Each structure stands twice: as C-alpha cells, then as structure tokens.
C-alpha cells in the first residue's frame, strides 16, 4: 500500500467512527435513556446536561462525517471502475445523510425532536414522524447499510 492508501484508510476509519458514534448514541438515547427517564424522571438539570453532551457528540459526528465523506466520495468517484449503480447508491446515501444533518442542525438545533410542538392535525403528525429522533435513527441505520452496499458494489466492479 502506498502512503495515500494509508491516509484514505485512516479517513475511512474516521468516517466509520463518526457514524458509529451518532447511530450508537441514538440507539442509547432511544433504547436506554428515554425509557429509563420515563419510568424515573431525572432531574431537569441532569436531562439538560445529557442533552448538551449528546448534542456535542452529534455535532462532532456531523463535522467528521461531512469532512471525511467529501474526501472519500471524491476519492471513489475518481476511480476508473465506478459504475452507475455505485453513483446512484452514493447519491441516495448523501441525500439521506444531508436530510439527517438538516433535521439535527437546522430544524431542531436545541432540543430533542419529540420535545418540540408537533403542530395540529395530520400535517403536524407527519412532520413529527419525519423529523423525530426515531426517524433520524432509522435513516441513520439505512445510511449505515448503504455504506455496505457501496463497498459491495465497489468490490464487484474490481472483478
């Protein structure tokens, strides 16, 4: 392996760590923190600090994912053997990731999505279901899975 391959390997590792931190944090929040907090509500200060710490993790993950994602996309798209299927899956992955970033950074910048007013009627319910913590986690899991699809497509194109 040449030095550039080692650098790209480190960048790929950083990208994976950012994704694992965000998705893992979301799983912890939805499957541990929220259920426990519903049964035995934590003090308001504890919940506030938990939110601040989790927000910091997510903001760091977003920064790492954006930086490493751009580098990895350029590196892959400049390969000679990239197929149209690879590009299509990459576009879907990027679109879903951008939607997640939008929800977290701009739509709900200071609170958990379910803490925001959901609005009234069916439109409010649709908005709430498309921007809630559970939907962000599901989209994150899909994006995570698309990374494996991209790896498989790339490996297949090498044959």
Give a summary of the structure in a few sentences.
It is built from 5 helices and no strands.
Question: Based on CA inertia axes, which overall geometry fits?
Answer: elongated
Radius of gyration equals: 18 Å
Query: What fraction, in percent, of the residue positions are helical?
Result: over 70%
Give the count of helical stretches. 5
The averaged pLDDT comes out at 88
**Sheet having the most strands:** none
- Beta strand count: 0
What is the domain tally?
Answer: 1
Question: Which H/E pattern describes the elements?
Answer: HHHHH
Which structural class should the secondary elements be placed in?
mainly alpha
Q: What percent strand? A: under 5%
Oligomer: single chain
Distance between the termini: 19 Å
Low-confidence stretches are none
Any overview of this molecule?
The chain is mostly helical and 159 residues long. It has one domain (3-158). Helix content is 83%, strand content 0%. It has helices at residues 3-39, 44-77, 84-107, 121-131, 133-158. Helix 1 packs antiparallel against helix 5, helix 2 runs antiparallel to helix 3 (84-107) and helix 3 packs antiparallel against helix 5 (133-158). The model has no long low-confidence stretch (mean pLDDT 88).
Q: What's the arrangement of secondary structure elements?
A:
Layout lengths: L2 H37 L4 H34 L6 H24 L13 H11 L1 H26 L1
Helix pairs in contact: 1-2, 1-5, 2-3, 3-5
Main traits of this protein?
single chain; 159 residues; mainly alpha; 83% helix; elongated
